[in-house]
Design goal:
Elements: H1 3-12, E1 16-21, E2 26-29, H2 31-37, H3 41-44, H4 49-52, H5 63-70, E3 74-79, E4 85-94, E5 100-109, E6 135-136, H6 139-152, E7 158-161, H7 168-177, E8 186-190, H8 196-204, E9 205-206, E10 219-220, H9 222-225, E11 230-234, H10 241-253, E12 255-256, E13 265-266, E14 270-275, H11 279-284, H12 290-296, E15 299-302, H13 312-328, E16 333-334, H14 336-344, H15 350-364, E17 369-370, H16 390-409, H17 412-419, H18 423-438
Parallel strand pairs: 7-14, 7-15, 8-11, 11-14, 16-17
Antiparallel strand pairs: 1-2, 1-5, 3-4, 3-6, 4-5, 9-10, 12-13
Helix pairs in contact: 6-7, 13-15, 16-17, 16-18, 17-18
The chain binds adenosine-5'-triphosphate and magnesium ion.
Magnesium ion binds next to helix 7.
Length: 439
């Protein structure tokens, strides 16, 4: 294709594009990215992401650096200094020698127009949701995010299924943010956390004098507050049966009454429900209404537990280490052997457990380099394994030191200078590590 035409296409894509080389140096961005980020191509070209991330208000994080670090495609969401929320998919382009020549990032804008609904204190549990980041490099998860973004554009009801801590709430927020309803409220209620007798009025609201103790002015419920936006019903399996039929009615009639009310309220919201239970199983035991189940089951999305996508663990560790380094103003790194041990752990609490453990490691360890022997986690062994010779242990340690210094300083020239070895030797050792990492 003609080069001029390619440039025209590049600048006229709806997605932002950000291209870096194998060292993380910016090759170029398109016009859409300039508009999304507020930075120009001219000021970014030639600058290394190692310098742009976390400094001078450029970027809060970088999918490219995660791609270069992990040598695999990565999907991540980030906030810009101008308070925009971006979804970034980074894809490595390998050369024949198996090294990364370029990382091509495709970027979607998920910015929510800030919604400022005042919520009174007794609805504090049904809170307005805040922003956060999704990171993944697993094919399964990327397919799930793709599916979620495709259905986000429609008004379909979505049922999120998955164990505790896999990221259901996070995905619900991302779906809302990338939907047409992003300018309106996202209201969440956790059906398991609210006493049964309060769920009805929380959801539907009530008229003055509807029941003893009710505010005489009445109160809007969650469905009303979500007008034009999204309702997220977490742990839907815990919704009492009589409210299940009421909810089904709302979905079918697109209207409802406040408790004790006579004025028909128009229902205009998208419904996202989440559960860590097998709803079909509950239906077969008569514990969940079958008709509601089919209404919710329009687009089911199952998020796999972390142990079924272990390839995500190193990328998530990296992401949380960066997050908590920023929070605690530290510069800590995980050693390769600690990362490898995390990869083999069970993670019953999934990503929430991983995140908590990374934070604990950052807060409780002394020194910037976190090795397994510094971390007291039941079931996690130290690096000293009987039968492993001194030579192997030293080689392991050398690998960790080189990787850490390379992560901090980037080029083999700087690594050599820091360690007091020749550049040729540093380059040779780093190359050796890269080759053995791939095998
Ligand atoms: N892919 C991801 N990248 C980054 N952070 C993630 C990812 N998935 C989950 N998290 C983080 O892990 C924590 C748990 O996620 P979340 O609350 O969405 O899980 P959940 O499935 O809703 O859990 P529960 O069933 O307990 O409600 C959150 O802090 C979330 O930000
Ligand atoms: Mg949740």
């Amino acid at each position: 294709m003609d080069k001029n035409l390619l440039e025209i296409i590049f600048d006229n894509l709806y997605n932002g594009i950000y291209v870096v080389d194998g060292r993380g140096v910016t090759i170029g961005v398109n016009k859409t990215f300039e508009e999304m980020s507020g930075f120009t191509n001219a000021e970014l070209v030639g600058r290394s992401l190692y310098d742009l991330v976390g400094k001078d208000n450029y970027f809060s994080g970088s999918a490219s650096l995660l791609v270069l670090e992990r040598q695999c495609p990565v999907t991540a969401t980030y906030s810009t200094s101008t308070n925009r929320k971006l979804l970034v998919k980074g894809r490595p382009i390998f050369n024949l020698a198996g090294e990364i020549d370029y990382v091509i990032n495709t970027i979607w804008d998920l910015t929510v127009v800030q919604y400022s609904h005042r919520i009174d204190s007794d609805t504090a549990r049904s809170k307005l949701l805040s922003e956060d980041d999704i990171v993944t490099c697993s094919d399964k998860m990327m397919e799930i995010i793709d599916l979620a973004l495709r259905v986000a554009a429609t008004d379909s009801t979505i049922l999120l299924n998955g164990e505790s801590g896999v990221g259901k709430s996070l995905l619900a927020r991302t779906i809302h943010r990338s939907s047409e309803r992003k300018g309106k409220a996202l209201m969440q209620i956790n059906c398991a956390a609210i006493p049964e007798n309060l769920i009805e009025s929380e959801l539907f609201g009530y008229e003055g004098g509807a029941f003893t103790g009710a505010d005489h002015r009445g109160k809007a419920g969650l469905l009303e507050m979500a007008e034009g936006g999204t309702v997220f019903l977490d742990e839907i399996s815990e919704l009492p049966l009589h409210l299940q039929s009421k909810l089904l009615n709302v979905i079918q009639e697109k209207s409802f009454l406040r408790v004790g009310g006579r004025v028909v309220q128009h229902a205009d919201f998208r419904l996202i429900a989440a559960t860590n239970k097998d709803l079909a199983e509950l239906v077969s035991h008569g514990l969940f209404r079958e008709d509601l189940y089919y209404r919710l089951h329009v687009v089911p999305i199952t998020i796999p537990p972390l142990r079924e996508r272990r390839e995500d663990i190193p990328t998530l560790i990296q992401h949380f280490v960066e997050k908590y380094n920023r929070k605690y103003n530290s510069y800590k790194k995980f050693s390769e052997s600690l990362i490898n041990q995390f990869v083999t752990m069970t993670w019953k609490g999934n990503i929430r457990e991983l995140e908590n453990l990374v934070e604990r490691c950052i807060v409780t360890t002394v020194g910037d380099f976190i090795t397994p022997d510094k971390v007291r986690i039941p079931g996690l062994q130290t690096t000293i394994t009987p039968g492993v010779g001194l030579k192997e242990m030293l080689a392991d340690r050398e690998r960790e030191i080189l990787l850490q210094i390379q992560e901090q300083y980037g080029t083999s020239r700087r690594v050599a200078a820091v360690l007091g070895i020749s550049q040729a030797s540093a380059a040779r050792k780093l190359k050796h590590i890269k080759v053995s990492k791939k095998n």
